[in-house]
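Fig. S4 source data, part A: sequence.
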Amino acid sequence: DRNGLLNRVLQTYTQSLERMLVQWRAARAAGDAAALRGLAHTLKSSSASVGALGLSALCADVEARVRDQRLAGIEAQFDALAAEAQRILAGLSSRAEPL
């Protein structure tokens, strides 16, 4: 990490995750299933690439459930996804090295 690659990747991920959480809340409030599915898909991939595997798995589940219109009980998954994203953001902001 002499050239700061890890720090730059995590900084980019953090900024993206913060932006997507704002979009997530707006899409959820509007009941926009297509937007929620798209955001879950994007977060699934980016989270997996930085090792946030719990968030990636939640996103995969939400994406599949919205796609297949299995919406019973999905609010709990939405809450879990948002909570896990916040937990990751808190962890990244408390890193010893600044982002």
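Fig. S4 source data, part B ends here. The radius of gyration is 14 Å.
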